[in-house]
Amino acid sequence: MNWEHWLLSHESGIRLGFFFSVFSLMAVWEVLAPCRQPSLTRRLRWTNNLGLVVFNSLLLRLLFPAAAMGVALFAREQGWGWFNHVPAPWWLSMLLSVIILDAVIYLQHVMVHAVPLLWRLHRVHHADPDYDVTTGARFHPLEIILSMLIKFAAILLLGPPVAAVLVFEVLLNASAMFNHGNVQLPQRLDRIVRWFLVTPDMHRVHHSVDDDEANSNFGFNLPWWDRLFGTYRDQPRAGHRHMTIGIHKYRNPKQVTWLSGMLSLPFKGRITGYAINRRQWKASDEE
């Protein structure tokens, strides 16, 4: 369809438009009503976190020019994937595709916590000593590449509509910035919203230094998977304003905040017996 090619050609502009709109909204919200007092200056963290975002974006464009929407179009043209073989109303294939892709991201997130080698990559995201809108896009380049390859495989197997992939990408990026925001919804509203969307309070628990809390609330967009698979945790033990964010072993700003430190962090320390949902951290742990 011509409109699919139009979406593909304007994909970057659409995604950037939503990115800057949501980012600006969250940044203003954080300034006007922050949930927590930051431990480091915004200038230091934002310069390095956003520098990593720019680097990752350029790398992905270089390695995967067509991106996820291009793979979806390729799958349709080749007749690959479930929805290219099973007749379904367009709206239903759109809805189910977004939900299934979100479930894949949830499972991927559990995997990078459960596999020690992959945790070394993912800890770049968790080692941020503060928690704000920029944390939501702070990932090591190797994890970004892995995530993209997993997404490609899911799209080839699923065969989703091209528009569904764009909707999913926009929702995922927007919700990641929202639920990593240094903001807080009113308690009653939060309890309602988190049945349909991962809220900042819900996901902030996942960034606790305590590993049983860090190994909970894996969802980025839809909160249902955590409740369904038993990884949901309501609140942090220390409360949102007093909980410690980050990783016990890695607290040096040069190592966890500077761009050079983030890029080299996966190669620091030993691969130990990191296990998902271990009861508590030990002082001697490397991870």
TrEMBL record:
| Residue ranges occupied by any Fatty acid hydroxylase domain in the UniProt entry | 95-231
Q: Which residues cross the membrane?
A: 12-32, 53-76, 88-107, 148-172
> Gene Ontology terms, cellular component aspect?
membrane
Question: Any idea where this protein resides?
Answer: Membrane
Species per Swiss-Prot/TrEMBL record: Thiolapillus brandeum
What PANTHER family does UniProt report for this protein, alphabetically? Answer: STEROL DESATURASE
- Gene Ontology molecular functions: iron ion binding; oxidoreductase activity
Coiled coil (residue ranges): none
Please indicate which superkingdom the organism of origin belongs to: Bacteria
UniProt protein name: Fatty acid hydroxylase
InterPro entries to which the protein is assigned, alphabetical: Fatty_acid_hydroxylase, Sterol_Desaturase_Related
Any one Gene Ontology BP term: lipid biosynthetic process
What are the record keywords, sorted? Membrane, Transmembrane, Transmembrane helix
Per the record, the major location class is membrane
